[in-house]
Structures are given as structure tokens and as C-alpha cells.
Amino acid sequence: MIQFVIGIIVGLILLPILLIFYPSRAVKRNKLIEYNLKTSSKKELTTIQAKNILKSLHQCTDLYWLNVLINRFWFELADSNAQAYRIKQRIKRLLDDIPGTGIIQSLDVVDIDIGNTGPIIKSIRIIDASERQHLGDAVDKNNFIFCKNLYKKFIKTDGLLDFDKIHNEVFKNVHAVISIEYKGSIKISLKIGLPKKFILNTEVNITRLEGNVLMRLPSLSYNTRLEYSFLTNPDLEVNIDGGVSKGEGNEYFKRTISNLLRRTFKFSVLQSFVYPSFNTIYLPLISADFKDLRHLIHKITPTTPVNQISIRESLEMFLALDYKIIKVVNDVTFRTNNMILNDKEKIYCAHFLIPECALNSSHFSSSNNYIYENLTIKESKIMNQIYDLSILNNVILSFKELNTIHNFNSAISLVELVFLDKKLEFIRIVYNNKIFFQRNDEKNPDFLIFYIENNTLYVYSFITSNIIKMTQSRIFKLKSKLEMKHYKEFSVNKLFRYSKNALNFWKPYVAPREKQDYVTDVKNIVNITSKHNVSSHFSDIDSFISVHIPKFFYKFEVSSDVIFSILNQDSVRLKFISEHTQIYRQISENDLYRSIAIESKNKEIKDFILHTHKKDNLICDVINNKKIVYEVKNDFQSEYVNINNIHNHNQKSMYSLPSNTEIDLHKKTQITFLNLNALSKLNTDCEIKDPINSVFTINRLPNAITLLNIYVEDEAFYSNINPLYESIYTRITHQKIFNFSQKSDFETLYIEKELRKDFFGDLGGVYIEFKTSKSDDFKFTLFSTVDKKDILKINKIITSKPVKIIIPIFHEDILLLKLVPKFNKNKTIDIKIVNLPKLYHRESLIDCNIGLTYKGHFTFPIVGSPSYIIFWEKEQDEHIKGFIESPFTKVPIKGNGTMRTDQMNYSIVYKNNGAKCREISIYMGVTLKNSN
User: Fold this and answer.
1) CA–CA dist 511, 687 (Å, integer)
2) DSSP code of 839?
3) Would you tell me how many other CB atoms lie within 10 Å of the CB of residue 608?
4) Residues in domain SMP-LTD (predicted)?
5) Residue 618 to residues 4, 82, 515, 711: CA-CA distances in angstroms?
6) Of 489, 556, 924, which is closest to residue 725 (Cα–Cα)?
7) Assuming Cys at both sites, which of 41, 182, 592, 633 could form a disulfide with 209, CB separation 3.0 to 4.6 Å?
């Protein structure tokens, strides 16, 4: 409180002097400018704090004990030479910060006398947001009506107070109204040196100060300061005498200068100390305080023991300094600390809110997919661009790549930044939500610090080399890159200059980067783990099933192995939870279960961890401590037969029947029980003839009817069962094809600039699967040498996962497969090509990841039939529009879905209307529709 009062007094004394010599620096416009520049605390309030907040909304006037303590302390302060010295130094420091214009040559604080009488605090209370909106008027000290209205405002329908809302609203930035009264005598004498040896002698004597002060803790702009403002013009009595002299001679213009100072003083108080103008005071013990900033490091090598904690703590100390706002331009805030580090350069800070499009877009690519502590998956994606500094591509034009020299552990590594004509070594340290880049140079210990908090990106830099200095223009480029503003109009001169240097600056170059397998038990790059012990959920699955009734149950005419293989795919089971989720990465696995980080594309659903356990015929998923159990089992209550018309392969049916049941072989849509000559008891495998001499084979099959039971502990975890059912059903036939293709082995082929492979395509279909050890971009073409045209052409397939394609073949053909890699990361490619039976001659499928440039499109041609359906699954992206085109119509599609087909050709088309996108996961094609 003493520091608060003294801060007001020092400000009152300096303002008239500043206003006379530097009016632009002293006068503040009567306008409230608030920037959301600091991060809010994530700590929760305790019960005691919450109760105190509620009580603090009442005005407190019983402050005699506090005033006694203040005045007793003030009594000792009046005789303290140390306090007088601190006030003198503060006045000099404030004036030294003003740019020198040659007006003030010197400043001498001749005398300071604060007197024996201290200030009196008459009342104090905390106010809430609703009352702050009416500030500027006189504050009613009797707050009975205010408190009464406050309780009405936060009353709920159930008669309970929403205390949490009051507490959080008040505590975020505490606003206190303090009634101050001072009746004493504070004298300060100054001698200000002017040009040509003139001296301005000034004496200020404050005898009375009374008013209501609004104090805000912390300030809106700094979490290291508090700010204050008088609600109305304070009652102030001040005597100011001043005159100009030369040397020790007589004073001139004494009356004129004294009147000018008094008028200026009153004007400056009104302009700069009255609401909504605020003045700030540093909070004690919050920010680091150094008299001389030094930063030293010892150069390290791959064989040198590294003290990671020492380096990190040294850099984190610079984050704790107080940074003054220089300016706010285009929603980017620039700050600096006034102290010079190592007598070379200041530390600069820039921060801005990460654009929403950057958090939701997949146009950035990175060789890693780490999850950082205290960050969401979307924020972690941005941090992964910082980890390998790919975020600086095209931001610093001369920057080419970051190479890892040596990994000491998962948190610290020695890296090399490669520029066009220079290489710099840095020590990279990852800790929680921060990444530090410390230059490995004892003479130039430059550093860059990046961290993300509350969707805001902070960049701290101490850089003496211009090649990597984060200048204002580079910060703007960085923000524009995150906003995906890739195109810019240039003048003729700039266009010529950029085109002239294009070979050097815009040479297409992508360095081969290998993924690093880091240990998972370090605290730096953190794998998200559940706060609950998920193991306990997997130990009682049997008892859980025994006491619960299945929420959903389905019957499939296929073996249980096929259904279990489909459900074993995490992407399929995610359809039960939401269509707007995707797998980010697997984060852990043990003998009991594995954990996967799931990213949500829907704002209503948060990112979550999926824990999965498999036991016999059961798959158990745990989400937020709740279970979903999938039970796959055979139906043993029926016999199963396969009835096939030898003369017509299309007439093939499989039936589930009780034992010794008779069946009409001609009615395929339903089973009818008739006692006619064409019927036969299905006791053994046999051949029979019906009255029109059609020959049928009747084969007894192993159990081929599968029951799927789904048990749900919390119904809030699913939205719609249809996407899951469609996802399972559309995969049944293709899972059979996958199982059929497993009999064939992969062929390893060498690939350089391109791969060409021709093969015979038989009537039925062809299954193509290929994969690489390192993810790369491929141009895919399948060409028919008989028809002399492309069957399928895809501009960019990304081999981050195996590529699976099924193409129907309607006549014998010699097909040519052509694969062209973009980055040549792999010397070999594993490929499998399998000719499929005629049974699958209308099945189509493509399952892979693709990339689309701006205005790029993807087309998958398919052939429809009345008994088939088109299905599609694609990750949500508002910029990628989808259509199903036929010769007669064009139907827009999005997300996941199915559509019946007629006997005609169709095409599934995706077009990208936004920025370049990578890793677009698609699963689409044609399959036999459900006959149930």
C-alpha cells in the first residue's frame, strides 16, 4: 500500500514537467484501450478464496487498524535516507527513458521531504464487471442496493447462487475502489539543467489529496503490474513555485513559470490520472530484477555431458522479465525489455492469437506428431512445425532446413540450421509447452524461445545475427503463413527482384527427415495419459456384459473373423462416437491395452484418449472412464447352406435355416416353406434339379452368421449408430478381398525416378496394394493398353499408410501401373497385385491418404449397378467440396455416407477451394448393397 501511494505521488510530481517539455509523452487521451495480452491463470480458486471474494463485495470502513500500521510505517519512512534515495533514482530513471531532444541537459533532485503524516484509507471494496461498466460517475459508498441487485443477477431457477461465476469474474482482474485521504506535506525540490547553462528551479508541495481510486490487479496489459486511476477529478491542493536562473543568480519569470506549472499540473492530472486513463506500478517479487543482464553458455559437442536443466532454467528466467509494450500492429503485440543483454542487444517478444484456420487445417506437414504437455492436439500440430523449424520456411527466405546432429535424449538435441550461405549450431530443448533454441556459441549465445498458451503463440528472441533475427516483417510473415495467405501482389520492381533471385531463394528442396523414436517416459515431449486407472475397467468386462443388456445388436451373414477384423480398425469404431474425429497418433501400448490420441474436428467434442483392450471375441474401448464393449460371436442355433445356380453365377444365395428345413430355390428375396417337388431337405451336400431343369449345388457351410452386440456404459458417448453400421457393412466384401489377397506375397521393386509395371488383368477385378518405409508423395496412373486410356489417375498419393485399391475389370486387358515419387525418399517399394475372381467384378475401392493443392481435384470413376451402392468416408474439411457426378446429375456430398446406384457410370469428385491440404484420409468405392 505504501508503494502504491508513493507511486501516485511521484507520478503527480513528474507529470507537469513532462507535459511542458514532452507533451506527446505525458498526455494520454481520455480513451480506454485494452489489449488481451497476458495469459490467464489456470489455477483453481480454493474454498477460502471464494468465500473471501464474496465478502469483499461489501464495503469495508473499519480500517483504523490498517491506518495505524500505515502511519507508523510512514513515520519511520520519513527519516529514511534510503527511501529518499530510491525516489530520486526513480525520478531520474523515468526522465532518462524519454528520448533526448537536447532540452533537459541535467536533473538534480535537491531535496525530498515526505513529512510525518501518512495517508488514510477511508474505505475499500471489490466491484464486479456489471458495476465497472458504469464507472466515471460518482461511486455510491453505500453499496446495499448494489449487493442486493448482485444476488438477484446470479440467482438460478433452483434458488441457488452461481457462486463460481461470481468468483471467476471478480478474480480474473480484481477491481478495488479505495477511498484515500492525505493531509500532510510532501515537498520535492528539483533543479533542471537547460541549454546555455540556464537552470529551472522547481519546488512542489502537496498538502492535500482526496479521492476514490480504482485499482486493478493485475493490469489488463501486464501480469507483472497493477494499474490505478481516480474515478473522478481528485480534491488536490498543491503549491508549485518555479523560476529560471543562470548559475546561482536571481530567478526570472518566477510568477509566469509558477502559474504555467500550476495550470499544467491540474490539466495533466485530469488527462492522465482520471478514469479511464490508467497508470501502472510494478508488483513486487513477481518479475525478475537484474541490475546487469548476462547470459553465458559453454559450447557442447555430441560427447559433452549436457546440463539440460541449467540451460533451460537460465532461458526461462528471461521469460520472467517485465516486457513493455512497444506497439500493437495487425493484432500482433510487440514487446521489449529495456535492459541490454550482454551489452549487445535487448530481448524482444512478439505474440499473437493463432488463427482458427491454422488450428483446424492440415496444410502443414511435419515428420513428427508429438503431443506436448498442457496443449491440445491442434496446438501440438503447430508446435511440431516449430520443433523442426519448418514453420520458418518462406518466412526467412535464406533458411533451408534443420538437421539433427545428435540426440542426447528425447528432450535435448544438438541441431544445425542450414541457410543459403551459412550454418549455425543450436541446442534444442523441449519442455512442457515450450521449445528453446540456444545457439551453441560462447561468443554469441543467441536464443529463440517459442511457446503456446491459450491458443496464443509467443516468440522471444535475443539475436545478434541478422540472418535469423525475428524482425517485425518476419513475425508478420509467420502470422500470414498460419493464416494461409500464400499469395501476394508485387510491384514490377519487386517482381523482377524476386524472379531474379528465384533460383536461390525458391529452389524446391525438401530435406529427408527420419522419424525419431523417443522414449515415452520423459516429461518434455509428453504422451497424453488418462488421469484415471484404466486397467481396472478391463478386468471386469465379463461381469459388465453379464449385468448389462446390449444397446445395439446386429446379425451379419459372414464369418465372425471378418467382423472382428473390421472392428479391430480403430477408425471404424470411432464412427460410433462421432463422424468428426480422426486418429492423431498412438501414444502407448502394453500387454493389457493401448492408448490413442483422438483429434476432434467438431467444436462440441473435445479431443480425447481412446484406451482399447482386446480379449477373445471382445473389444473394449474406454473413453473418459466409461466403457463401450463390442462382442462378436457366432449364431449356433441354425444350419447354414450355400445354394448356387450352376448355369447362372448371379443366382447365388446363402441362408440361415433351422435343421431339416425345406426351401424354394427360386425365391431369393425371402425364404418360403412350401412342400413342392422342387424342394429338398438340406441334410447333406448334393446337387438337385428343379422342374425347369436348373441345376443347383447345395453345400453345407461352417457357421457363417455373426452376431454383434454393443454394450454402452454411458449413452452420451455415441450420437448415431448408422455411421458405424454402414462402415462395417461396406467393409465386409472388401475384407474378404483383403483376406483373399493375403495368400499372395509382396514384391519388392527398386524405384528411382519412376516405377513401371505391366500385368495381365483378368475378367473380375484387380487388387493393388503398395507401401514404403518412408512416407513420400506419388503420382499414380493405371493405364489400359487395350482401350488406350487411363483407368485411374491420382496426382498425389501419400504413403503415410499402405495404399489399397480395387478396380473392376470387364474384359481381359494388359494393364500398365506407373508410380512417380516426388521426393525420392525410398530406394524400394513393396507392391502386391492380385487378380480377383469374377464374383468381385463390380467391386471398387480406394483406401489411402491423398493431397490436394489449391483448386486441385481428385476423381475416382466407378461403375454402378441396381444391386450396388456407392459409399464414401472422408475427414471433414470445409474447404474441400465433394460431389457424385453422373451423366445426368451432380449430387453434393460431405463426410460419410452411402447412395444407391443405377446401371451407369459415376465419379466421386473432391475439389479443394482452400489452401494446400495433405494427409486427407479417404475410403470410398462401390459394394453390394444390404439385402436385409
Assistant:
1) 65
2) G
3) 19
4) 59-284
5) 67, 77, 33, 11
6) 556
7) 182
Show the DSSP H helices in 97-159 as ranges.
129-132, 144-153
Which cell is 774 given?
518412408
DSSP state of 196: G
Closest C-alpha among 24, 431, 38, 363 to residue 219: 38
Per-10-residue mean pLDDT, the chain, length 932: 56 51 42 40 59 67 85 80 71 58 66 83 78 51 42 39 51 80 85 78 85 83 78 84 74 76 75 77 66 80 82 85 83 86 88 83 60 83 89 89 89 91 92 92 92 91 89 90 57 42 41 38 37 64 82 85 89 84 77 82 78 88 87 68 47 43 42 35 42 47 74 76 85 87 91 91 90 93 92 93 92 92 92 90 91 90 90 79 90 87 92 83 88 54
Q: 588: helix, coil or strand?
A: strand
Q: Is the separation of the CB atoms in 205 and 238 below 8 Å?
A: yes
Contact 576, 710 (CB under 8 A): yes
Cβ(335)–Cβ(349) below 8 Å:
yes
Collapsed DSSP state (helix, strand, coil) of residue 328: strand
Cβ atoms of 166 and 174 closer than 8 Å: no
Round to whole Å and give the CA distance between 739 and 804. Answer: 13
| Dist. CA 896–CA 873, nearest whole Å | 4
Record the cell numbers describing residue 148, joined without a space: 442486493
Pair type for strands 890-893 and 880-885:
antiparallel
771/703 Cα distance (integer angstroms): 35
List Cβ neighbours of 345 (8 Å cut-off, separation of 6 or more).
462, 463, 464
CB 26 within 8 A of CB 268: yes
Closest among 743, 785, 736, 728 to 760, alpha carbons compared = 785
Would you state the pLDDT for residue 14?
Answer: 54
Give the cell for residue 663. 426351401
Give, in order, the Cα–Cα distances in Å from 348 to each of 460, 475, 483: 6, 12, 23
Scored b (16 or more CB within 10 A) or e, 630-662 reads bbbeebeeebbbebebeeeeeeebebbeeeebb
Q: Tell me the β-bridge partners of 168.
A: none
Span between the terminal Cα atoms of the chain, in Å: 79
For 111, counting Cβ atoms within 10 Å of its Cβ (0-12 exposed, 13-18 middle, 19+ buried), the class is exposed
Residues in CB range of 715: below 8 A, 6 or more apart: 551
Which cell numbers in the block locate residue 387?
A: 520443433
CA distance 884 to 586: 34
Reference 931, options 648, 669, 610, 616; nearest CA is 669
Q: What is the CA radius of gyration of the chain?
A: 38
CA atoms within 13 A on the CB side of 762: 9
Asked whether 544 and 711 are in contact (CB, 8 A), the reply is: yes
Other Cβ atoms within 10 Å of 32 Cβ, number: 12
Cβ count within 10 A of residue 672:
11
The cell for 634 is 457366432
* Residue 292 burial (CB count, 10 A): 9
Contacts 24+ apart (CB under 8 A), 624-627: 624/717, 625/530, 625/532, 625/534, 625/537, 626/713, 626/714, 626/717, 627/537, 627/541, 627/544, 627/711, 627/712, 627/713
The strand pairing partners of 874, in sequence order, are 922
Instruction: Supply 763's cell numbers.
Output: 475378367
Residues, the chain: 932
Domains, the chain: 2-251+259-282 (no CATH), 308-505 (3.30.530), 535-635+707-729 (3.30.530), 639-702 (3.10.330), 735-928 (no CATH)
What are the b/e assignments for 521-533, b being 16+ CB within 10 Å? eeebbbbbeeeee
